[in-house]
Fold:
Amino acid sequence: MDPLILGELTPLPNNIARIHFTFFQKNGVVPLGCTKHPVSLVVALPEGQNGTKMDVMDILGLYANMPVEKIYVSQEDYFNYLNTFKEEQGKEVVIGVVEDLGENTLYEIAREIPNGHDLLDYSANEPPIIKLVNLLFSIAVKDRTSDIHIQPYEKDLRVRFRIDGLLYDMYKPPKRAQEAIISRVKVMAGLDVAEKRLPQDGRIKIRVNEKDIDVRVSIIPSAYGEQVVMRLLDKGSTMVGLEKVGMSPEFEKTVASLITRPQGVFLVTGPTGSGKTTTLYAALQLINTPEKNILTVEDPVEYILPGIGQMQVNPKIDLDFAKALRSFLRQDPDVIMVGEIRDEETARIAIQAALTGHLVFSTLHTNDSASALTRLIDMGIEPYLLTSSITAILAQRLVRKICPHCRDVYKPMEFERELLAEHLKNGERMLYKGRGCDNCINTGYMGRMGIFELLKMSTQIRQMVQLKKSSEEIKAEAIKEGMLTLREDGLKKAFEGATTLSEVMRVTIE
Structure:
């Protein structure tokens, strides 16, 4: 059979689709679908494999009640077909598992996860509750989910996934399964199953489709039962360079020149979830060489960076950012990263570290770059210390990227033309959007990127800080000196087809 006509195949019969994928994996065969005229089951085998037992084909023919037709494909295509079958089977099994949920015994809930065990390799004999929780993790990872929310209501239970920054309703398991699902998560996270009145936090380490995932679990009591939020951290996803976070080549060169200086404070600002930590990790990786001693203090340590000393704050033993910073200065560091400047004490120690010859990275929660300067002055830091130590401030937001599989170009509509009036002076410009397809779960978006605003400390801006000018005045001067604002950088990327106008307006609205 010509592989080009595979798109014309009809879906697999239920009795074949429900055979666990490990059966096909062990036998070196994967079912693809059925032909229409004459009706037969089509299976793929990797090229060069001629040793598939005939009884496997007989079994499949017997189960499907139709002839079996073999096609040989490349090893790469074979594994792609197998992974697709595995993922689709996982989604279908969720429905079956929910139907199978009955009264759950302690044994069903308390089964341990074998070390290094891939959750996609579930056994057909596993209790339904374990199978369901494993499948939720598996599908969440496949769909690029950052957080899983399990939210109980009066008459139902909802499972929601946060994908590219927005929450989507995904599943509604039966209300009767609520206690069992939450107890299973508690067992996996090593939490007290009997405690239902107090908040609890824990961690789970899982493996899904050859990916090591760290899961941070937060459980709180609510009106209709305990509510669970699980943050999924893919240990490999943050190991990216500055170019991968959305910086243009010219912008990346400018930032690289600032973060490779021997001393000074480089600040990254933005609200929670705007990618500040990822940007700082990318910056640290750029300057991480054996000649440098790099130390970080974070809350919490999200990803382990090879070759870098990382410390986590611990309020229970009074280990905060300020105390960690003081201890760092006795460790002969070249570069220090402070997870966040929250108070005057931390800010003062970070600035003193920069003034004594260290390069300091940190974050602040402010709306734009200029506001960081006035925020530090409001904290009680003297303006002359800021002008002596700060080299630059990077403000950022995250926008969703248009799905490359369903991107369309269109002319701006009337209301969009009004929003873009000053940017359309040079003639008609085109915009882009995603139609929505299976690859992006019909959202039109796939992945996220940063939009940036970089304020460099020029002589004029230093003088304005000394005179305690407002953030609006400082920002106006920076724009006059050539700074692109967050919105301008976002619009530039919208015109290039990387994101949509609505995304840029959503994250830059003031």
Q: What stands out?
A: The longest strand covers residues 390-402. The longest helix spans residues 75-100.
